[in-house]
UniProtKB/TrEMBL annotation:
It comes from Cloacibacterium rupense. It comes from the Bacteria. The lineage of its organism: Bacteria, Pseudomonadati, Bacteroidota, Flavobacteriia, Flavobacteriales. This is DUF1795 domain-containing protein.
Length: 267
């Protein structure tokens, strides 16, 4: 992929970033049908995730149909514009997300050109666990690594995504700065999880993991599932996120989530 001028390879996620403008390009692949994912990119569905659909168009990518969306989203008081390119087949879908503050909307054309420059390398071999800037230890648990997606590490109890049992996701803020009220941000972030908008918070406690302060939250989700979150804040006012979700064996899974969270480290 050829990034726009001023962008460099990110050390925190799969893609590029421009620290001067606060812009980024994030590449993610999903083990899901292209057609099914496209069906979920409706105006109503995007709105539930805090995004406003500006436009969408059917485009051609490598002689196949693809979709290009333009949306806006407000984060930390800043309005961001996003160009999202989706393409794939019956089994896998790739999403290339170009994000930039509305203040720098002049880079829209360059961003679009960059998105369409991406090429798939089917022979590429990568070790996402080695490439990630952080790590956890799931030894002694039933959780296994499944996939790296947009810089996040995804684990599940049955090795499937989505999982019918339990899931663990490790990610970071991708350079976004945090609020002054870190506790409130941790709570708000949990409620942005799927089926968690009306989550019932059961416990919020301060924690210190890997020499970082943060908050540990235990909650019940909208569908009665166990929700677990640890948000840790570094000296650069960025955060790391550990999220666990389980529909069964909640007591046991909570113990596992707490044990694994305390093995988190930044490389």
């Amino acid at each position: 992929m050829v990034p726009p001028e001023g962008f460099v390879v990110s050390a925190n996620f799969s893609g590029f970033q421009n620290n001067e403008t606060g812009s980024s390009i994030i590449v993610a692949d999903f083990p899901a049908s292209y057609e099914e994912l496209v069906k979920g990119f409706t105006k109503e569905a995007l709105k539930t995730k805090g995004m406003e659909l500006i436009s969408k168009e059917t485009v051609s990518y490598q002689q196949k149909e693809a979709m290009l969306y333009k949306v806006s989203q407000i984060a930390n008081g800043i309005t961001y514009l996003k160009q999202i390119l989706l393409f794939g087949d019956l089994k896998n879908t790739v999403m290339v997300n170009g994000i930039y503050p509305e203040l720098f909307s002049a880079q829209e054309k360059a961003m679009r050109t960059s998105l369409f420059s991406i090429k798939m390398n089917e022979k590429q071999i990568a070790n996402p666990l080695e490439a990630a800037p952080y790590a956890i230890d799931v030894s002694g648990t039933s959780y296994v690594f499944v996939k790296s997606m947009a810089g996040s590490l995804l684990y599940s109890e049955d090795g499937q995504l989505p999982s019918k049992k339990g899931m663990l996701i490790i990610s970071n803020s991708l350079g976004n700065k945090v609020y002054t009220d870190e506790k409130q941000q941790a709570i708000e972030r949990l409620k942005k999880l799927p089926n968690a908008s009306k989550a019932i918070i059961q416990k919020v406690e301060k924690v210190n993991i890997s020499d970082m302060q943060g908050y540990e939250i235990v909650a019940q989700g909208d569908k009665g599932q166990l929700l677990y979150e640890v948000m840790l804040f570094n000296s650069e006012r960025e955060y790391y996120l550990i999220v666990g979700e389980a529909n069964e064996n909640k007591v046991k899974n909570l113990e596992v989530f707490q044990k694994v969270a305390r093995t988190f480290r930044v490389k």
